[in-house]
Specification:
about 260 residues; alpha/beta; about 45% helix; binds nicotinamide-adenine-dinucleotide
């Protein structure tokens, strides 16, 4: 299947590693021109070099902390001038800290809101003038399974991810007239650097091997394993492609069946 992504102009945030980097790599494999951003330029440049080495397609970098509105504005402006516009925006950020209601003071709630919800608002707001000029515009928000089913000890994520889905769905209605599709993916436990770090910590705590810790993390996933970043990225890229051109307003779990809801 031709995804029709050759020459598509794509911005992926929080993409120095993990789901963001895997998504950027898959876009590049499909012939898209990609800008990746995250806070640390050096790490970002290493990631870009590794993608370019594999695909031979141009990958640009721009440092940006997505919690800083001024940096987001600069990111969008520079992206549009580096690659001549924006067709596809993938909003991603690091996850908010783990904990329950008694763990956090109000300032942590505020910074988590900035990181998880307002970063997406700001990225979309500043990208819109460029997306409106595209003939194949798509926005994808990367959220979490916690949007549909609360995850133990993740109250910030459980509260804020559904808000991002609300934003995504509302925008899919509002921006349809501009021919901009807006969707979200809810990743389940996926084998990124972050999950490897968590598995290592868990292994140490419980006197387990890392393999044992990882398979304990897969408890509750009907497929009996955690996902790979490539499995996530394949779906992300398809949803944003012209091959997925009638997918709009969808919040799709890529979770091996972890979410227990019927609909
Ligand atoms: P990761 O920690 O491996 O990578 C996160 C990326 O975000 C890194 O590139 C980091 O530099 C960047 N980043 C963090 N804060 C940033 C900021 N303020 N501005 C710009 N960049 C920033 O995480 P991941 O596993 O790839 O997860 C990506 C997102 O998906 C996170 O929000 C995470 O909570 C969510 N998620 C992941 C999983 C999973 O199992 N991997 C499951 C559900 C949800």
């Amino acid at each position: 299947m031709d995804l029709g992504l050759k020459g598509a102009r794509v911005l992926v945030t929080a993409a120095s590693r993990g789901l963001g980097a895997a998504t950027a790599r898959q876009f590049s494999r499909e012939g898209a021109i990609v800008v990746i951003s995250s806070r640390n330029l050096e790490t970002l440049q290493d990631t870009a070099a590794s993608i370019v080495e594999e695909t031979g397609n141009a990958v640009f970098t721009q440092a940006c902390d997505v919690t800083d509105e001024t940096q987001v504005q600069r990111l969008i402006k520079n992206t549009a001038s580096m690659i001549g516009g924006i067709d596809i925006l993938v909003t991603n950020a690091g996850g908010p800290p783990a904990g329950n209601f008694k763990t956090f003071d109000i300032d942590v709630w505020q910074s988590a809101t900035q990181l998880t919800l307002l970063s997406a608002v700001s990225l979309i707001k500043h990208s819109l003038p460029h997306l409106k000029q595209s003939t194949r515009a798509a926005i994808l928000t990367i959220t979490s399974i916690s949007a549909k089913q609360p995850v133990d000890n993740l109250i910030l994520s459980n509260t804020l991810r559904p808000a991002v889905i609300g934003l995504t769905k509302s925008l899919s209605l509002e921006l349809g007239a501009d021919n901009i599709r807006v969707n979200s993916i809810l990743p389940g436990i996926t084998d990124t650097e972050r999950i490897q770090e968590l598995a290592e910590a868990r292994a140490q705590l419980n006197n387990q091997t890392i393999d044992e810790a990882q398979s304990a993390m897969a408890d509750g996933i009907p497929l009996g394993r955690i996902g790979s970043p490539e499995e996530f990225a394949n779906v992300a890229v398809m949803m944003c492609s012209t091959a997925g051109g009638f997918i709009n307003g969808v919040a799709l779990p890529v979770d091996g069946g972890w979410i227990r809801a019927t609909l």
